[in-house]
Structure formats: structure tokens, C-alpha cells
Request: fold
Amino acid sequence: MIRSLIAQRQIRCTNEASPCFDLEPFYKRTPDLTEWRIIDHCSAVTRLYSIYERFVHELLGAFLAFLESSAAYPDLDASLRAEHRRSLGQVLLSMDQERYRALQFESIIEDLAKAFSHSGSYRLLPEAMLAHEQNLRLTELSKLFNRCGITGVTEWVLKHRVLKKFFSEQERQSDKADAELKQIVNYRNDAAHGDVDTVLGAEILMEYTEFLSAMLQALAECVQWWVIEKSLEYKKTRLAGKINEIFSKNVVVAIVENSTFAVDDFVYLRGEGYCYRVKILSLQDNCEDITTRTVLSPIELGIGFNSEPKKRAEICYVQTSSASTVSNGCCGVD
Reply:
């Protein structure tokens, strides 16, 4: 309201015969309506991109913290250890840059020494592992995930059900996630460099917001998939079962073993291209309703979920504290 009054030069002294102040110098320095639209556009697109980039950094930072608490340094994949050493080397060469001013040389060397000691304590320095010079278009995003040990991100994103639904619901600015993301990055760069020749309307900005929401959900599921994969590899958790049949009202028959199931528990359903958390609403054993069941040998168990299940989905209990931090923190995808 106030901004409109200023832009339309409608704020003035009520004493027109002898005004007590002169707003003309102020008006000359304020943006006009067109300039305000450009300012709003730049603020919106830079903020959208900032939210996306920060989410990616927090997501991968949580995954790196999970690895630190779950595996000894020598047990990490050789490719990840190589990326870690290379990234630390780049930081050490560039410590005079502003982005690394908060880091201390001694601390970095100490962390690296701990990685090869018997203490088992080490740190995958996020400032090193997550550094990137280019904006996070899909190609650069994939490189960043690969560096942290998460592969196949491009294929995951392009095939993810939420993004497929986004593009199928109505006509969009682009027809694929990589192109839509590229547009957002390009608008952000134009805004950051002051080279704006297109001002987006509210409808397109809402589309980009909805797209990024779907994109972040897809990335969160991807990281959670890898959390469970690594938890299985490091023997921090085990598969509880696999869905064999699906009935109405999200009820399934699953082959389960080596776990205790209980109503109101949360589990993850995981398969090719998906990994999401669901709540157990009901249990049935031999047509009898139960509230809990401890299973050692494989049996068929009826399970009702609060969300739509998928046939042949793996059922996983994620119980380690680090995995819970990732799943319930910045990348929760309930």
C-alpha cells in the first residue's frame, strides 16, 4: 500500500498552500512502477534459487554426517575417499578466498589425520565436499551428488513420480525437469547480474515454486534411498520384508522376517526410483487383527498403511540415529 502511494506520487503535505516538507527529491530517487516490478522479479527468482541451493547443501551435509557416524574412513567407497582428498586439496590451495576464511588450516589437517587414525573419528568437510563454481543445473547437481557418493541422480529426477505428475497435470514452461531447472537458473543469473529483460508474472513464479517443491521431494527421497542402502551395507539395519500383494485401502500382504512390527510404527517403502515413509495403521496375522508381531522366520503378514504402497517394495525399519537425522530432518518426505 505505502509502496503504491510512493510510486504514484500520492504522499504529500495536506497544507498545499504552504507545505511543511518537499518530497520531490525523495520521489526522484525512488523506483517507478516498472522498476518496482523488476525489483520484485529479481527478489523472487533469486530467493527461489537460494532456497533450492540451500536445501541441496543441507541435504548432502546430512548425508555426509550420516556416513561419518556409520562407517570407518577406510570402509567408505574408494571413489568417495578420493573425492574427499581432492576436495580438501582444493580448499588448502584456496584458503585465502573469502568463502574459506572461517576455516583453519590446523583443523583441516587434524581432521584428515583422524581419518587415518585408530580413533575412528573423522569429518567429511562440507565446505570442501559441497563446493561448486557453477549454479546447480541438473548436470552440476549430478556432479555434486556423485562427489558425495550418490549416483544416478539425473535418471532418478527425470523418472520420479512426483515430477512426472507435475509435468503431466498441465502445460508447463518446459516439458522436462532439466529444462525447467535451467530456466530458473538462467532467470536467477540475469537477476543477479542486473541484466533483466523479462519480468515473470505470478502464475509462472507459482509454477517454478511448485516445480522446486517436487524437485526437492525427489532429491530427498533419493538421499533417503542411499541412507538405507548404506545402512544395509554397514549392517546398521536390515530389510524387514517385501510387499507381495496389494489390496484396497492401502492394505498389503508382505513376506516379513527378523523384525518386530507394531501399529503406529513408521517404516520406509523402497524400490527403483522411490523411497518414502509410511505409517502402519493395522496388522493382521492369519486373518486375526493384532497390534504387534515379532517375526523371526519368513511369514505372510497383512499390513495396512496410511499411504499408497507399491508392489515388490522393500519394507525397511530405519533405526540408527544418523539415518533418523537425515530422514526426519531437512529431507523428511512423509
